[in-house]
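Reminder to self: tokens first, then the designed residues, so the page reads top to bottom the way the pipeline ran.
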């Protein structure tokens, strides 16, 4: 995948094409993480039930996943359901889980066609059996794909992940005095993956909401006022272009934005 494949997919002559032609392929972020926010507000602005915002958000997921793969990203992580989201009304939670299953069933062929590998991060054991079966089925059927890794964060919390990683580290038998950051990262849900270079948040909120707290230590953050159901390839490209204009310092001197610079 690469920008040529993206240009083949987006409408010719539109704003997406103009943005795509500005993207530098050798300076793509390796890993983009997105906090999908604003479904409820989107529905409220239209005097619709909150669940209609979640339904509309599926179209944004579909567009962004394929655009990311075609662009050539290595990893895309979407924050779908947090450990705190169980506090929402049961009807809303049930709808979210139903939409997740529907997405996996309808989009599996797209994941396979675009060589995308699907992976779930979070405390998945707390999910219902029917949801877990759908997730594992998608993971199994895409396991041999070699293109973009698509993480979906379900029943996820950044603090919870760090606690779980600490427990795994203690259970591994490693000498705690010898444990370093690189070893500890190997016990996270995202073990073996590059940390996010770019964190995108929709709906204009200026917080990270307990998302990938360890991994985003040096991520560039880009916030858009666009509500998640309205977020499309064009907005993703805007975020990537904003990222490519930044100097990354990592606590030291400025470093050029480039794939693989850590």
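Designed residues (262 positions):
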């Amino acid at each position: 995948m690469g920008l040529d494949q993206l240009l083949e997919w987006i409408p010719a002559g539109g704003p997406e094409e103009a943005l795509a032609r500005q993207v530098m392929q050798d300076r793509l972020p390796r890993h983009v993480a997105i906090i999908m926010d604003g479904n409820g507000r989107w529905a409220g602005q239209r005097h619709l039930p909150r669940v209609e915002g979640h339904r509309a958000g599926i179209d944004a997921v579909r567009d962004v996943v394929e655009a990311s793969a075609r662009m050539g990203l290595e990893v895309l992580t979407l924050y779908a359901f947090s450990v705190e989201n169980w506090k929402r009304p049961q009807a809303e939670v049930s709808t979210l889980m139903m939409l997740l299953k529907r997405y996996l069933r309808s989009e599996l062929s797209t994941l396979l066609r675009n060589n995308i590998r699907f992976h779930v991060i979070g405390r998945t054991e707390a999910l219902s059996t029917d949801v877990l079966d759908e997730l594992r089925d998608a993971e199994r059927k895409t396991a041999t794909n070699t293109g973009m890794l698509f993480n979906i964060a379900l029943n996820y919390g950044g603090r919870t992940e760090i606690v779980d990683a600490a427990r795994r580290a203690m259970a591994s038998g490693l000498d705690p005095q010898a444990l370093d950051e690189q070893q500890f990262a190997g016990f996270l849900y995202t073990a073996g993956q590059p940390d996010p270079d770019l964190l995108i948040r929709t709906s204009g909120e200026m917080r990270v909401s307990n998302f990938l707290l360890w991994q985003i230590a040096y991520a560039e953050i880009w916030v858009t006022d666009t509500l998640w159901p309205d977020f499309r390839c064009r907005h993703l490209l805007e975020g990537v272009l904003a990222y490519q204009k930044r100097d990354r310092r990592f606590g030291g001197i400025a470093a050029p934005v480039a794939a693989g610079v850590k």
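The chain has a mean pLDDT of 94.
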